[in-house]
## 1
Amino acid sequence: MGGPSSHADVAAELATRPGHTNLRSALVRWLLITVSLTFLGALLAAPLAAVFAMALDQGWNAYFSSFSDEATRASIRLTLTAAAIVVPLNTVFGITAAWCIAKFEFRGKSILITLIDLPLAVSPVVSGLIYVLLFGTNGWFGLWLQDHEISIVYALPGIILATMFVTFPYVARELIPLMQQLGNDEEEAAITLGAGGWFTFFRVTLPRIRWGLIYGVILCNARAMGEFGAVSVVSGLVRNITMTMPLQIEALYNEYNMVGAFALASVLSLLAVVTLIIKTLVEGRAGYRRR
Amino acid sequence: MKNVGQREPNVIPGFGITLGFTTFFLSAIVLLPLSALVLKTAGLDWSRFVEVIASPRSLASYRLSFGASLVAASVNMVFGFALAWTLVRYDFPGRKLVDAIIDMPFALPTAVSGIALATIFSVNGWIGQYLEPRGIFVAYTPLGITIALTLIGMPFVVRTVQPALLEVQRDLEDAAETLGAGRFYVFRRIIVPTVLPALLTGFTLAFARAVGEYGSVVFIAGNKYMETEITPLLIIFRLEEYQYAEAAALGFVMLTISFVMLLAINLLQVWGRKRMMVSR
């Protein structure tokens, strides 16, 4: 690569560059920083601050008592259950897909990568719709499911499937570039010296990809817990039974229960903040490269 | 048997099983359900299909979804570039924090940003109260939808432009300036050509995400008939009326747009890599 690779290098280099201390460039610099930060503040910081301000509008007591609502508690339980099933499955998939794509050369690899990324380009509403078309009463498997008294749509399995579709690429996308960059040399050495496949994965590969894996899993988890569009299509909105946290936020908001809605939203916002903190920590680790 | 499909011998085990598992899982979760959508649409006869996807209400929703997404992605291209430039070229207190907060829309649930934006930009909200006396109404208007779409698309532009800006060859800039080129000339002739593929990729990613967005839009949109109804919302309405084939037809339109966007993004990336190679 060569050249300046980090912000610190660029900043250090800038300080030594000639012709950059004059008034006009200082003005441009000041202007750009102000414009960028104002844009960011109005668009990102203000909504985030508003979530906490609205949640605490009636004081801490009202904030905490909003969590004693039975429907709110049920929604938290459902979201945790769904994430507990979706995230491990997508993690196993992500590791498998990354191993296959990063360690081997084969025809159709770029098509496979594009297909793995496909859910990111599909509208969340369409992501939910496809499962209704498959498993709904009018769907392909609808009659068979009805005969066997299995409900997928408007029940937990549908929520799990839709969430899985939406968060499908996250772990794989984190791991593929990381493992491609790390190369095969160490694994080849281990195998040549007689180590088995599993041993090589757990003792050679995993320690080197663990930070990328952690971030991928955390991001997948945040998206899984926060998914709204796809889940609202397959949920059927049965109170206490198929309402996840984002759906409960919508219901409370539409009932003008602002403290309740924003209190629940503040939990998911904290999760997002923690996700970003972990991302920042992970990126500071050696061997981890931002795409 | 282990090396089938491989170009060179490889001692690493697990090719067959990982490729098999990956394709199986991908087919079960992504490809099979998507093909159900296509087949369901095909079950609709042609005249009904056209009637559904070209109804005045659908056309109004495309105009809104495309128009707002186009404006949002363009705004992001300008401000996203400014943000990426600021983060790459300048050092200022809190830069690390700003760099971290850029990814917020990736991690924040869309319903949360949706209700937060609707609250801030309502007539009594933090920002809305200053806009309302000037006759600018954000909540329940296409402007509000555009703001929500700008929020969710922003990190795509910043995160694709940032690495490209780091790649700009500084010695080229220095050489140009030593030879008497002004800053604007350097910007136009050296910086813009280098980051252009990344900038366009970011624009397309932001646009693709915005067209399908639902959660952050529905709260601020107000969902007024033919006025602030986005296309994903119409799909939800069709489903609530149990018109599955009609919902599938609209979903098919959206899916086609997704595929076109993916193709555009891939072509842009190929173009970008080629330009990179030529410039070295």
## 2
Amino acid sequence: MLKVFGGLLLVILLLSPFLQAKQFRTPERALAELYPNARIEVINITLSREQQEEVQKLSGVRLDTRLVSWYLVKSGKEMLAYGYIDSHVVRTKPEVILYTITPDGKLDVVEVLAFLEPLEYMPHEEWLKIFKGRKLAPGTLRHKRDIPNITGSTITARAITDNARKVLALWQVLFGGRR
Amino acid sequence: MKRVLLFSALFSSVVFAQSTEERIRELEEQIRTLQQEVQKLKEEQRKTEDIKQDTEVIKEELRKLRLEIAIPQLKIKTYSGLGPAASKAMFNPRGVSIGGYGELTFRHNSVNARGGAKSIADVQRLILYFGYAFDEKLKFNSELELEHASTSGTHGTGGGYFKAELAFLDYSFRPEFGIRGGLLLMPVGIINEIHEPPTFPSAERPFFERRIMLSTWEEMGFGIYGTVNNLDYRFYITNALMVKGGGSYNPLEPLKTIRQRGARAVADRIGFTGRVDYTLPYNLKVGFSLWTGDVVSKGGSDSMLNLRRGSKLGSMTMISPHLWWQYGGWDVRFVGAYVNINNARKITQDLQGTSTTTNPIPSEQKGFYLQVAYDVFRLLKIDNQELYLFGIYEDYDAHSEVPQGYAKPPGHKLKVYNMGFSYKPHPLVAIKADHARLNYRPNKKDENEYRLTLGFMF
């Protein structure tokens, strides 16, 4: 019987990476894992109407809030990245996406923090890597043209792509010298 | 001419002196006005600063609120005297709340698991917590329990029962003071109140908690509770205990026969129970619990002394110190108990008749258990999952004293060596396996138990 128990323990140890229950991570935790040893500061910014309109004009996406929160990822005085959490409804349920932007205005990481739609619609990691290095420029972030579709998850793919433009436009207006 | 010149000189100096004084007065007035203006500006600046700070606070709160809605985080919290799943109703601000837990077990006993069989697979407990918040302070909470999958004796080797284990109304005036009344869990030991399977590492509740602390033990009552700084307290008045009679008496867990559990409990006499916990740094909790009250007869055909139902037979007092440390992956627990049964002879006679050859109700019980558990996944830097390895040592005597003339029953002393693991792929789910070595003394064969449990709560 002891051997059975030992075997069970071994099986659990081997299976534990696959059994891991998906739990939602907070932005602070996700950023701490993406940028180890970095310091994370939160700033909440109220946009003027002009800034809101400029973001919409630059991205072609509606910005339905003037209160935005950014996560500044720093190491000492050096800025490593800017993080933004975008929560939007995909079909009927929300998804929460973390976008990080390098100090020179390129997308660094796009990661799903929470996805409440059925999991078959959730984008896979390889697809999310396509965004790395993209800037807010014509012909870089258009769904189905610059960014490929995800078969069977068109609405998800479109939402993440459109909001990537919105987040880059926000960064441009707030931190990219066009304030 | 000289006179005229002198007069005009004098006049002009007087006028000059007068205009200087006026000028000074004017300047002083201006300075006062300016000071008032500066003061006003300072106040306005302070107000603007305050408003700015307020705005920042509101913005930050909005950010948190948005995140909480978008990324709900699992918070495992316990409300005064209740496990995490049972606490759900107490934290719910309004309306219905539903929770529950399950304990599905496999047990192999080297001597006898049940009626001669050595292995038993059992839906030991399926629980439904059902609560309602009338408002933020007034709540109803209940625990409905189905034991052993069925209430039918013809299913398997016999089903169990469906009963209420908890049903009370609670009014919290403030964190320091609340009142509750109904069917309450007795606040003794650790497991009796917080017994959802993922909250403790062993495959089954420790023997000491079940056989000496009488888990699960609930009685009708009312009382007060609260938290004052680091001090948690609960004090209840309950119905008395009653000898069950009817021939069901297990000398390995003798006092389980005197619980009433809210089933038309005889309340001619009362009991008193309470508990105090003090939280020290590093989440180290120390405290003690107490139960003291009368033991009465069930009367009629269940009373071997032919007493009236509710007649007093004796009394029971249980005093139990405890220590509980959950910190940095450790879960260390100690529970001790000293139990004194006054007039155990009369209680035994009412239960068993006047012959002294029967197994008696003890006049004294004492013992303790110590648990040390650690989440080894912390060492392997594995997040979001836990793997507790644990050891429990139990040492108690269920009949350390018996009424004069009676013999102590076989196996009244028990030492348990329990080792195993609890794997939690999710904080609300536990897969547990362990081995318990039961060393009975005297005249009872030692046992080896191997147990596997699937436990969950929500």
